[in-house]
Give the backbone structure.
Amino acid sequence: MLVPTALICVAVIAAPRWAGGDDLSAAAAAPESPGPRRGPGPARTSPSPAAKPKKTTVKPSATHRPPHIPASGPGTFTVARAGASSGNGNAYRVEVEDGSGVDPDAAAAQVAGILAAPRGWAHAGAHSFHQVADGPAGLVIRIATPGTTDRVCATGNMNTHGEVNCRLSEVVMVNLKRWQQGSPEFHGPLADYRALIVNHEVGHWLGHGHETCPGKGQPAPAMMQQIYGLKGCVSNAWPYDTKGHYLGGPAVP
C-alpha cells in the first residue's frame, strides 16, 4: 500500500486520519582535543586536579539514522534495469524519482522478491510477473517524494496529503515516506511493510477491493488499510499464510 519495510525503537503515535488509507485508488566521534601547548624553557609541573567523572555522549550510529526524506523532487524518474522477476506473465516496470535517495535497481530487486513470494499474489502459480526496463508494461510502480506523489495523485482527484500512496489505472505511486519509514501502526520489519505496500497496490491492480479485520487477534488482510489502525488484528503483509490460505476479511463498501 501502494502506500506505505527491522526496527529502531521509536515512540508509537496514533496515525493521522488522512483522506485515504495505506493508499488511495482510482480504480561520527568528536575530534580529539590537542594536548597542552608548551612555551620555551623547562617544563613545569603542577599538582593534578582531582579526577572528574567523564561525561559520555552516545551518538546514534549512522546506520540507524532515519533516511532523509526530500519533501519534493523534480518529477523525473529513473527506470530500474530489468533483473530477477517471478515469471513471464504480467509485465511491470519500476521507476524511482531522481533525488529521492533510493537506488532503482535495489528497489526493483525488492519488488521482484515480493511479487515472487509464495505468500504473495504468485501463490500456487495464480499470477506471474515479469520486470521490463523498456517496452510496454501493464503495471508501473513508481517510488516518489511526497510532493510528487501528491501532484500526480491530484490528477485523479485524490488528496494524499504528503503521506499515503495512490493508484491511477496502471500506475502505482508509492510515497517515499512510507517506503523509507513504514507506518506507525505496522508492527514488523520495514521490509515487511514494503511488502504490504506492493501487495496492497498490486491487489487493487488485480481487482481486489479493501477489506477489514476479520476478528481480534487474526492477521490483518493485505487489502486492509492498516495505516488507519488494526482494529484488533495483528500486522500482516501477505495475502496468504504459510499453508496457502487466503488472509481476507469482510469487504469494505
In short: Confidence is low (pLDDT under 50) at residues 1-21, 28-64.
